[in-house]
Amino acid sequence: MANIMQEAPIRAAIIPVTAFQQNCSLVWCSKTMRGVLVDPGGDLDKLKAAVAQAGVTLEKILLTHGHADHCGQAGMLAKELGLPIEGPHEDDIFWISRLEDDGPRFQMQCEVFTPDRWLKDGDTVTFGEVEMEVIHCPGHTPGHVVFFHRPTNFAFVGDVLFQGSIGRTDFPMGNHQDLLDAITQKLWPLGDGVTFVPGHGATSTFGQERQTNPYVSDAAIARGR
Q: Name one Pfam family in it (predicted).
């Protein structure tokens, strides 16, 4: 469990889960110690231990999208702990409805669930005294959302954007142009100083990716990639 923010209105820790080393994030309000798990896809015992170690009281589960490594066991955790699930956008019902079929392909036990609240662009999610903005960023999946905490310039982007790469779009209902548009038209305007946690791999900033990312840097977009 890597702590990535120490003194701020929110604190966050990354807990890699599943064979895909998916970055589940434990995010909490520094003042109230109440928080959320973003994309608790699996390894539930590991996640519960991290929550206990941090001394956080969970309020809800937030989901960026419907792929198994991000949400395959979210419904199981929600039932066990009595937590509501918020997200993703309803356009990902296609993926959530097939979790039990997809699970074995990923060597995972998955369970279909219905979120307590589907999210849409412009919504907000809250925990403790914290509010995060919801940004609908389709392309990797049609219902993918990003969570943005404007006061600290911090975002949880799931599989939209990575350090040096972008999300795959060769899955069913993926769309490469939609993904490029979401990144350049919805994320970049938030500012170069935004630090983000991707669904896999190391954190980065929007400014760094605009300079160096081979798919969505300003130079790559200008070349028409």
A: Lactamase_B
